[in-house]
Each structure stands twice: as structure tokens, then as C-alpha cells.
Amino acid sequence: MHDVTVPRAIAQVLAAPGADFITRLALASPFLISGVVKLVDFGGATGEVAGLGLQPAALFATSIIITQLGGSVLFLTRRFCWLGAGILAAFTALATLLAHPFWAFEGLDRGRQTATFFEHVAIVGGLAASALLVNGAGPRR
């Protein structure tokens, strides 16, 4: 990896106490919120996965809740950030393929689904970047 000089002001922001945790919390927040909502409204969660054709719906809903909440907790730790990032990235990739098949739509719906699909691709990239930075593979200060 090439050494990168980071401007002093940026290095100070990146080195601020808790900055890495806050950025990971922001990235994990959709998974945390979704997992809690599904846990509180388990009937809605089973209906959502059944609507995607996943059966048995209760087993899939439970697995999704465990994946979202467990992956988020791991992602928020320094030691297992890489594992949480991998779990959430794999989940996001699979869920995106199932829930946002833009190629199966026409017109405006295709555009919306395409945008959502690639927003989720960006989340996968953000998870990977976070794991790299937390594990010391990021820019040198």
C-alpha cells in the first residue's frame, strides 16, 4: 500500500476520540433500526420475507434479525469489526439481489430500483472501507 499524507486538519478529525465508533455507528444504524423494528413487529417481518418468497418465513425473519443485530454489534467493536462488516456486507448483497432486481422492472420503477440497488452496493463498500480502516490498512497519518 502506498503511503498517503493526510492533511493535518483531516488527521485531527480522524484521530478524535470516538470518531471511528461514531462513523461505524452511522453505517450500522440502518441494520440496527431494521433489526429492532423486525424484532418488535415480528409479524411484519415474517410478512416481509414471505413477500419475497422466502419460506419458512418465521425462520428467515429470525435469521435476518440475528444477522442485522449481531452483525451490527460485532461491527461496532474494534476487535471484530471485520467480522461484523463481512456479515452485514454479505447480508446486504443477498438482500439487495432479492429485493431490488432492477433488471426485472421497466420505466420509472427500473430507475428507482437501480438507484436503490447501487445505494446498497455503496453500503457494502462502506462496510469494507470501515473494516480496512479499523484494522490499520487505511491512510497513514
Q: Could you characterize the architecture of this molecule?
A:
By secondary structure, this protein is mainly alpha-helical. It has helices spanning 8-15, 19-40, 42-51, 57-75, 81-99, 107-134. Helix 3 (42-51) packs across helix 4 and helix 5 packs antiparallel against helix 6 (107-134). The longest helix is centred in the C-terminal third of the chain and has 28 residues, at 107-134. It starts with 7 loop residues before the first helix and ends in a 7-residue tail after the last helix.
What is this structure's SSE topology?
Blueprint: H1 8-15, H2 19-40, H3 42-51, H4 57-75, H5 81-99, H6 107-134
Helix pairs in contact: 2-3, 2-4, 2-6, 3-4, 4-5, 5-6
Can you tell me the number of structural domains? 1
Instruction: Report strand %.
Output: under 5%
Query: How many E strands?
Result: 0
Please bin the fraction of helical residues. over 70%
The geometry reads as globular
Largest sheet: none
Key features?
single chain; 75% helix; 141 residues; mainly alpha
Summarize the structure.
The chain is an all-alpha fold.
